């Protein structure tokens, strides 16, 4: 086959040189095969394969490394099966990506690859891998948030009936993936790992986010990154995440929502189930913007004042280990200005945390502060048992506290009881990432999510050498 391929390449145009079209199946080979192993841009060949076989066909990337030096848009596929047996490696040409990445519309973000269509599969068989050359981005970004032009690795757009299985991501440029304007999407048996080898964090390396999508299912994931593990953003309905393990992430949030006053966010029927969170800053939480627009916030963007609602959310069967803030609800996630933090009109209702067990890094098990303009009805704890790491090891520990504000039936008993113990009032400007125990927060609330230098050597942000910080590495 290889000799025939080389003969084919010698007479074909460069755009089609390494696509072998066998009827409705297109086999893609890397340009490096006839360039003495030197990396050559494979983007034109891959795009041509989708042009030839993207409708009622198959695109197969063999067990080689493919160099991706340009943006790709392979939407509009129909009855197409994609196989990735090797590695797709994105270039570290930062000026190119900053200038050419496709806008995803949401929050001024962009992507390197749009992928979508109807009745589509993408299989990696446990060995297909995306490599984003992320370290170049972590160094260039220098811990800043939401850099314009920094691309999401892979965006599913305008998809219906799409199944992705057995694919890995390493060293993502930004978010690993994004599901936008899609329906009936399943991503299963997914592995993601983005870590930094120096002092610059892997900021904004979410595992995935959903937006304007419904009927999306995430099964059997392992994620290590520097931000949300799986996040549900606005206008997402019937999203299920099951059997997910997250290392050193920001947990499993709904949000953020309520950023744009011209586009309300509605989120409903969300289930997170069978989740294991290890050394994460956050756990099972909800984050909404304040109700008054602010020009500058500490996530690098302006926003706030958006309406909508969040309802029918279940967090079930969570096992947490050394999580900074296990359970929380905030309606001032990026403002941290007490004068605007109680202005949200986005209604949060019918949220259940069930069978949540394990250890917290600090003495705060839960912080729930709903906006006084729209107090939260239907919030419930069922079998929630969280203790501090120190207490679990028999060491001296502060007593665990649960903080509440503006919950409907907060002090009810009997059938209306929330099951949420309220040991104190939750301030409206609580930081969404904790670096202190509750008595210290009472005297000095930290107003920035930047990790203080003295706090970096812990298992929430262990730096490049987890073992030296006394943190067990993930069992890869």
TrEMBL record:
InterPro entries: Glyco_hydro_28, Pectin_lyas_fold, Pectin_lyase_fold/virulence. Residues 1-17 form the signal peptide. It comes from the Eukaryota. Its main location: secreted. It holds the Pfam family Glyco_hydro_28. GO terms for cellular component: extracellular region. One of its GO terms (biological process) is cell wall organization. It is found in: Secreted. One of its GO terms (molecular function) is polygalacturonase activity. Keywords: Cell wall biogenesis/degradation, Glycoprotein, Glycosidase, Hydrolase, Secreted, Signal. PANTHER family: PTHR31736, PUTATIVE (AFU_ORTHOLOGUE AFUA_7G06410)-RELATED. Belongs to the glycosyl hydrolase 28 family. This is Murein transglycosylase. It comes from Cladophialophora yegresii CBS 114405.
């Amino acid at each position: 086959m290889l000799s025939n391929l080389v003969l084919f390449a010698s007479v074909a145009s460069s755009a089609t040189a390494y696509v072998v079209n066998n009827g409705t199946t297109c086999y893609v080979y890397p340009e490096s095969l006839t360039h003495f192993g030197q990396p050559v841009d494979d983007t034109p060949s891959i795009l041509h394969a989708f042009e030839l076989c993207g409708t009622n066909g198959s695109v197969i990337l063999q067990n080689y490394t493919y160099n991706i030096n340009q943006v790709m848009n392979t939407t509009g596929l129909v009855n197409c099966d994609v196989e990735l047996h090797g590695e797709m490696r994105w270039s570290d040409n930062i000026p190119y990506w900053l200038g050419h990445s496709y806008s995803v519309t949401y929050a001024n973000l962009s992507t390197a690859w749009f992928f979508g269509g109807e009745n589509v599969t993408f299989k990696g068989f446990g060995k297909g891998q995306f490599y984003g050359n992320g370290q170049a981005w972590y160094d260039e970004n220098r811990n800043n948030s939401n850099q314009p032009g920094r691309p999401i690795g892979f965006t599913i757009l305008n998809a219906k009936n799409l199944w992705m299985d057995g694919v890995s991501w390493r060293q993502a440029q930004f978010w690993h993936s994004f599901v936008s304007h899609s329906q009936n999407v399943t991503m299963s048996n997914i592995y993601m790992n983005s870590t930094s080898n120096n002092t610059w964090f892997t900021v904004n390396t979410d595992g995935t986010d959903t937006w304007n999508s419904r009927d999306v299912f995430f099964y059997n994931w392992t994620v290590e990154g520097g931000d949300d593990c799986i996040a549900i953003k606005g206008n997402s309905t019937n999203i299920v995440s099951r059997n997910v393990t997250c290392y050193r992430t920001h947990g499993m949030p709904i949000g953020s929502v309520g950023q744009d006053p011209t586009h309300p966010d509605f989120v409903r029927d969300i289930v997170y189930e069978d989740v294991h969170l290890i050394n994460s800053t956050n756990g099972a939480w909800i984050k909404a913007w304040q109700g008054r627009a602010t020009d500058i916030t500490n996530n690098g963007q302006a926003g706030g004042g958006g309406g909508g609602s969040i309802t029918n959310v279940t967090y079930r069967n969570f096992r947490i280990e050394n999580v900074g803030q296990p359970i929380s609800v905030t309606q001032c996630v990026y403002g941290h200005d007490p004068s605007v933090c109680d202005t949200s009109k986005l209604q949060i209702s019918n949220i259940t945390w069930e069978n949540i067990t394990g250890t917290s890094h600090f003495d705060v098990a839960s912080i729930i502060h709903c906006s006084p303009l729209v107090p939260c009805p239907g919030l419930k704890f069922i079998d929630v048992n969280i203790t501090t790491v120190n207490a679990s090891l028999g060491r001296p520990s502060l007593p665990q506290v649960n903080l509440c504000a503006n919950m409907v039936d907060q002090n009810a008993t009997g059938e209306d009881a929330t099951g949420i113990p309220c040991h104190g009032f939750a301030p409206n400007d609580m930081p969404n990432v904790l670096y202190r125990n509750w008595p210290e927060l009472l005297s000095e609330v930290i107003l920035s999510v930047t990790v203080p230098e003295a706090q970096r050597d812990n298992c929430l942000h262990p730096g490049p050498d987890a073992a030296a910080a006394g943190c067990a590495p993930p069992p890869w």
